[in-house]
Design brief:
The chain is mainly alpha-helical. The protein has one domain. It contains two helices and no strands.
Amino acid sequence: MNAPTQRQQTIKINKLIKANENLLKEVEFLKDQLKWSRIVSAQEAELKNACFFYLTHKGLYTEWYNWHSRRTTERILDEIKKTFK
């Protein structure tokens, strides 16, 4: 007499239906998030490209690159000096 009754089966089916509906809602939500993350990622790449082209057009990229390289070299030399002290 371990067979589930009709009521127990109905309750179990209703729980599974509810769980399925919740999973479908979550899948839709995640699809929407993925869509927006792709849009944001594309916009970020566009912005980076636009900034890079602006800097190169104005001749500022070379100045920045030289400053950045010099600053990086100074940091490395400072670290080397600290290790020998």
